[in-house]
Design goal:
- The structure holds two protein chains of two kinds.
- Chain A is built from 13 helices and one strand, in the order E-H-H-H-H-H-H-H-H-H-H-H-H-H.
- By secondary structure, chain A is mainly alpha-helical.
- Chain A has one domain: Cytochrome C Oxidase, Chain A (Up-down Bundle), CATH 1.20.210.10.
- Chain B is an alpha+beta fold.
- In chain B, the strands form two sheets. In chain B, strands 3-4-5 form a three-stranded mixed β-sheet, covered by helices on one side. A two-stranded antiparallel sheet of chain B has the order 1-2.
- Classes of the chains: A mainly alpha, B alpha+beta.
- Chains A and B meet through strand 1, helix 1, helix 3, helix 7 and helix 11 of A and strand 1, helix 2 and strand 5 of B.
Chain lengths: 422, 100
């Protein structure tokens, strides 16, 4: 059965959100990315042996998680979910409101964390939580109308559940700084970390990988069955790890790490199969980052396992956290973002005769090369600094990382400039 | 004449690119059929996914490419997802462009 292009386009109307809306999230993410490295460069010594609590390190972590990872996830999900569910997100006004709450909210929250002011943190935290509530409403509305529950949609549902739990836990943690009602604040913070990193961001990364990796590599999508098994294992691992953190049961965390390793192993096997069967041979720098992120994912889980078993010292936990956030999630996201930013921009850029503009025409390759090198060197230096407990190495790594982040900002700004100029 | 117009249309569609893949839509395997009838050129095509966000850009470009042919035929572009597109539909030329 076929339909006329006019009929098809009428159905597709509104599928494309305004460029200014989507790109404000991406540009803000690029700014916060540079700010996170800058803060770490100024307070590098604080990362060594960091075990939680307000201060510049907590702010730097949240500049990465909320400022870069979630910020990008919001922008990408608003636009890409319509590809999966075939339903556009049409509430542009709510999307605008979300951006006005979220982007300054992250700045306020992380400023409050830097200076250790619970009131400022709470104001920023409430703004962020309100924005995320709008995001959840928008995404839930879109998912509820999906004609079929496929693997990616199932991942997004679970990620939304994780978002609800982690946001409530985050607000409780902020309030606890003044009220002190948690018997085990550090455990609650660790549970919050696990649910945020693996539950919300991790499940989104896994779910969208089943769409984006085959799309970028021009390869058949992996069989969904193993994807559901992976999702089940990861969900069980998150629940166990969060429980282990809350009730201070290291063996439960160790069991979670093992189950997580099994689940992530299945996921990585599926992704490598996709790459083996791809039509596009030259995947470029973006997939170098994606592959590095995939390699670091099991490393972080192994470190978590060894830490839970008491086989490594405090630096093991810090290193595991750093590798999860910066090594796996940030590296993966930057690899994907450097593909989807120009891809989404092509839909707003008018080429000669209104024809689609190619992704490569909107991509500043030198900026990405600088970013890729600096990102890798920065990660390695900071990780080495944590291992040998040398603040200077962390600081130097953060400076190099910041140089890379500025190069990425140059790339992101250039995508916008080239899109506007056509 | 009929074949000529169909051939011309096919060549014109080779100037329309899938923005993500960077390969023209003919070699991407998105064009299922081209036919000419009574001054109109009918193109039956697909997209890489039903929710393709680049759909409107590609379809507008296809209609313009047909309308700009020498005899100014009326474009009749029809979309189908049966069969759905798979990467195996990429032509040998398309695969060469992708580095295979």
């Amino acid at each position: 059965m076929s339909v006329s292009s006019a009929t098809f386009l009428a159905g597709a109307k509104g599928r494309l959100l305004p460029a200014s809306l989507i790109f404000r999230f991406f540009i803000a993410a690029a700014f916060y990315h540079a700010a996170a490295w800058a803060l770490l460069a100024l307070h590098g010594g604080g990362l060594i042996g960091y075990r939680g609590g307000p201060g510049p390190v907590l702010a730097a972590i949240h500049l990465i998680t909320l400022g870069v990872l979630v910020m990008t996830a919001i922008g990408a999900a608003l636009q890409l979910l319509s590809v999966v569910t075939k339903r556009p997100i049409t509430a542009v006004g709510l999307c605008q409101l979300m951006s006005w709450l979220y982007i300054p909210g992250v700045a306020l929250l992380t400023y409050g964390m830097t200076i250790g002011d619970g009131s400022v943190m709470m104001i920023g935290g409430v703004a962020v939580a309100a924005a995320l509530a709008i995001f959840a409403v928008l995404i839930t509305g879109n998912l509820r109308g999906a004609t079929q529950i496929d693997l990616t949609v199932a991942h997004v549902w679970l990620a939304l559940l994780a978002l609800l739990i982690l946001a409530l836990l985050a607000l409780a943690l902020i309030a606890d700084y003044d009220l002190g009602f948690f018997a085990n604040h550090a455990g609650a913070a660790l549970a919050h970390f696990v649910i945020a990193a693996f539950g919300f961001m991790g499940l989104l990364a896994l779910g969208f990988s089943h769409v984006l990796v085959p799309m970028f590599a021009l390869a058949p999508a992996p069989k969904p069955f193993l994807g559901y098994v992976t999702m089940g294992l990861i969900t069980a691992a998150i629940a166990l790890a969060a429980g282990g953190a809350l009730w201070d049961l290291p063996l439960l965390i160790a069991a979670a790490a093992l189950i997580g390793l099994a689940g992530m192993g299945l996921h990585l096997r599926a992704m490598l199969t996709v790459l083996k069967t791809r039509m596009r041979q030259r995947l470029g720098l973006s997939f170098l980052l994606v592959r590095a992120a995939w390699a670091l994912l099991p490393v972080s889980l192994m470190l978590a396992l060894l830490t839970a078993l008491g086989l490594v010292g405090d630096s093991g936990a810090t290193l595991a956290g750093f590798i999860v956030i910066a090594g796996w999630l940030l590296t993966f996201l930057l690899g994907i973002l450097q593909r989807i930013m120009p891809f989404l921009a092509t839909m707003h850029a008018g080429g000669p005769g209104g024809r689609p503009v190619s992704v490569s025409a909107l991509t500043n390759e030198p900026a990405l090369r600088v970013h890729g090198i600096c990102h890798g060197v920065g990660l390695a230096a900071v990780a080495a600094g944590i291992i040998v407990e040398t603040p200077l190495l962390v600081t130097l790594g953060a400076v190099v990382g910041m140089a890379g982040a500025l190069a990425f900002l140059w790339f992101a700004g250039d995508v916008v400039r080239r899109t506007i100029m056509g | 004449m009929m074949t000529d117009l169909v051939d011309l249309a096919r060549e014109a569609l080779k100037q329309v690119y899938d923005p993500e893949a960077g390969v023209n839509i003919v070699d991407m395997g998105l064009i299922y059929d081209i036919a000419e009838e009574n001054g109109s050129v009918q193109v039956v095509m697909t997209l890489t996914s039903e929710g393709c966000p680049a759909a409107s850009q590609i379809l507008v470009a296809v209609e313009e490419a047909i309308a700009n042919l020498p005899s100014s035929p009326t474009p009749d572009v029809r979309i189908t997802f049966d069969p759905p597109w798979t990467p195996e539909m990429i032509t040998a030329d398309g695969r060469a462009l992708l580095g295979q």
